[in-house]
Amino acid sequence: MREEILHQIEEVILHVVKDTSLGTSPLLTYPCTSDWSDISFDCNSGLALRRNQRMTSVRFESLQSVKKFGLMLKVLSIMYRLVKTNHFCTKRDIYYQDPSLFGSQHMLDGIVDNISCMLEIPRWQLHVLATSKGCIAGDLMFQDVDNNFIDCSQTQMGIQVPNHVKGLHNIVTNASFILVVEKDATFQKLLQNKVCEKLNPCIIITGKGFPDMNTRMLLKILWDNFSIPILVLVDADPHGIEIMTVYKFGSKALSFESEHLAVPCIKWLGILPSDISRLGVPEKSLIALSKADKVKGEEILSRPYISQYPQWKTEIEQMLESGKKAEIQALDSISDNFLTDVYLPSKIRCSGWL
Question: Any idea which residues carry the catalytic annotation?
Fold first, then answer.
């Protein structure tokens, strides 16, 4: 595999050299992922790039893209060296090799994604890792890439998801389900209330908001290895629903890597917009949808996968019609321990997910 990757990078550079020697302006091309028309959807695998989709060109002759062209070649050379020497580094490590050259971490992140898409090789196979921000706890043990033994049940605040997720081995769990939690605050509350002991043996994961790639990859690995039911707990608002769709279907920007990241079997446990009225959450605990919330909600309804999930569509429409949203913490207005002692146990026992 390493030799194939090195060969692909060499081919890209060779084309650039040939074009230059012939007096032709070289260019780099990769699939466009900026619009939903460029993306296809399958219930069993999530989002993917369409065949014969539009392409984006980065041209050496263009004043608008010549800097990006140079940066892509720079990053390609770094990737080549990493693969050749069998070393790994994070995107942040690359950025700090020359911050003034890259300008911003966001610029570098985009270039790494573009190269991965161009070569059709996942970033970790190019030996570039993302920095993890997610945490995990519960009935899970594994050894990391350095052979350190990690027991996720022996933590009070959660274990940070390793940067090199693909390097995990000897993974062991007896969990009966995995609970993915949107926010770190909720994750910490669940641990403090010992939810892993109150419910069946389980694993709890949070991406601390919009999930990083490593958290999503770990979830995918757990599903592939153990086929454990996966439930998601997010705010009853468009942002929470957006986060859930990324875990389940993948993201538009990284649709070319969905097979390694998306987990289509994920179920929406809560908070459902219909739960708000059903549970009698006090009006004072609800928040009015902002204009941006409404735009995001309508945009989600227009996505290609929503037609395959009519119950999701109904919930989102109900939220938009009510003009109200609720955070997970709104359940505290019913009682301090309502989430851990009543809501989660009853939902899981009665299969109250979508």
Answer: 96
